[in-house]
């Protein structure tokens, strides 16, 4: 398939719409000042073909896409025991919602909402230097050093009252082992990792290769774990828009409020789109449109 021309067509078709609709995340200045009129798309196939178009090498804040890689680190460390601490059901609620935590005794619905990622982070903090391990995993997957935007991390910490509430609430149920401040610090640093579409397409590619690192063939996850991570991305990766994503796109996806969305076509390729303007669910508007166009043009879908 001519992926480069597919991506060029998508970038050209969306160019007139850049910055027209949606709102850039504005809860911290470092994200609020990112110009909305940007769009990038990149993919990497399981056998190493790459294609990209638009602002595909511009680094952006990966935000909740880090939840995907935090989950990978935790599954590598503790396997199925992770699920003693975290559920696997879609929440149907906004990513930062507190409501289900009380009735569910402080156990988060899934690892891709904020409460779940904080619980995953708590596991990581118990087991490893979680900031360093996150950067090492990402660097090994995309073949270049990856760093953290310290300004974003500091602003997340200065304004993260809701995340602090989530963590403290879980702690009150005895669900976090570590100091709440430490867990939040690592979580905010993971959200503040910056990467480009090209780097994220490479980094997610192992999920289209039954868990094998695309660059080294090192096993990142077992085949079964990789399949299960894909299933969680499909059902929970885009929060309360997961049903709409499955309906319109039909691929496992993980989004972040920096405007990035990573998508996986199992046994074929990984894809990353980025455009900073978001819809009311915190998902990139043009990113979602681009994925819908990609699925329609290529016929690639899990359904
Ligand atoms: N840093 C954001 C938060 O913790 C990440 C949310 C997101 O990308 N959906 O709320």
Automatic annotation (TrEMBL):
<feature type="binding site">
    <location>
        <position position="163"/>
    </location>
    <ligand>
        <name>substrate</name>
    </ligand>
</feature>
<feature type="binding site">
    <location>
        <position position="156"/>
    </location>
    <ligand>
        <name>substrate</name>
    </ligand>
</feature>
<dbReference type="InterPro" id="IPR015868">
    <property type="entry name" value="Glutaminase"/>
</dbReference>
<feature type="binding site">
    <location>
        <position position="187"/>
    </location>
    <ligand>
        <name>substrate</name>
    </ligand>
</feature>
<feature type="binding site">
    <location>
        <position position="64"/>
    </location>
    <ligand>
        <name>substrate</name>
    </ligand>
</feature>
<dbReference type="InterPro" id="IPR012338">
    <property type="entry name" value="Beta-lactam/transpept-like"/>
</dbReference>
<dbReference type="GO" id="GO:0006543">
    <property type="term" value="P:L-glutamine catabolic process"/>
</dbReference>
<dbReference type="GO" id="GO:0004359">
    <property type="term" value="F:glutaminase activity"/>
</dbReference>
<keyword id="KW-0007">Acetylation</keyword>
<feature type="binding site">
    <location>
        <position position="257"/>
    </location>
    <ligand>
        <name>substrate</name>
    </ligand>
</feature>
<dbReference type="Pfam" id="PF04960">
    <property type="entry name" value="Glutaminase"/>
</dbReference>
<dbReference type="GO" id="GO:0006537">
    <property type="term" value="P:glutamate biosynthetic process"/>
</dbReference>
<feature type="binding site">
    <location>
        <position position="114"/>
    </location>
    <ligand>
        <name>substrate</name>
    </ligand>
</feature>
<feature type="binding site">
    <location>
        <position position="239"/>
    </location>
    <ligand>
        <name>substrate</name>
    </ligand>
</feature>
<comment type="similarity">
    <text>Belongs to the glutaminase family.</text>
</comment>
<keyword id="KW-0378">Hydrolase</keyword>
<comment type="subunit">
    <text>Homotetramer.</text>
</comment>
<protein>
    <recommendedName>
        <fullName>Glutaminase</fullName>
        <ecNumber>3.5.1.2</ecNumber>
    </recommendedName>
</protein>
